[in-house]
Structures are given as C-alpha cells and as structure tokens.
C-alpha cells in the first residue's frame, strides 16, 4: 500500500478524533468522531467496523479527494500556531 492509495484516510478531508478522556453523558470532555470535512460521510460517535470500512472506500470515485501531505499539514499547523 502506498500513501497515495485512494481511500479516505489518505485524503486531506479525512477527520478522526479519539475524543477526550472522561467522556460520558454526565461528564465534560468529548466523544470521538470520524467524518469527511467535505461531507461525504459522518460516522458520528459510534459506528461498526463495517460502517468504517464502507466509508473509507468512498474515495475511490470521489471528485473531492486530495492526497494528504503530512509535511504540508505540519507546516500549516505551525503557521496557525504563530
């Protein structure tokens, strides 16, 4: 597998958050989330492995797919911190 294989996890629009510790419906923090910033999928707080696998394959024919560049992303983060 190369870093440019056409699945969602290698796209700039892929978002994954593991949430913050201590989350429950009664305590502060936040649940995890996994979605496409361009709106192609949103797995919400909870989903199955099958839903995840089906979602990340959507990039095969996606016109919005852009390869994720880790170095560029790190530079963008550093620039926004300034």
Task: Give an account of the 3D structure.
Helices cover 24% and strands 10% of the residues. The protein is flat, with a radius of gyration of 15 Å. The mean pLDDT is 78. The protein has one domain (8-81). By secondary structure, the chain is α+β, with helices and mostly antiparallel strands. A two-stranded antiparallel sheet has the order 1-2.
Q: Class by helix and strand content? A: alpha+beta
Q: Could you give a short account of the major beta sheet?
A: 2 strands, antiparallel
The end-to-end span amounts to 35 Å
Q: What series of H and E elements makes up the topology?
A: EEHH
Low-confidence stretches: none
**Strand content range:** 5-15%
* Average residue-wise pLDDT: 78
Percentage of residues assigned to helices: 10-25%
**Strand order in space, largest sheet:** 1-2
- Kindly provide the radius of gyration, computed on alpha-carbon positions and rounded to a whole number of angstroms: 15 Å
Number of helices: 2
Q: Based on DSSP secondary structure assignment, what is the total number of beta strands?
A: 2
Quick summary of this structure?
This protein is 24% helix and 10% strand. By secondary structure, the chain is of the alpha+beta class. The longest helix is centred in the C-terminal third of the chain and has 12 residues, at 70-81.
What's the structural blueprint in terms of helices and strands?
Elements: E1 14-17, E2 33-36, H1 49-56, H2 70-81
Antiparallel strand pairs: 1-2
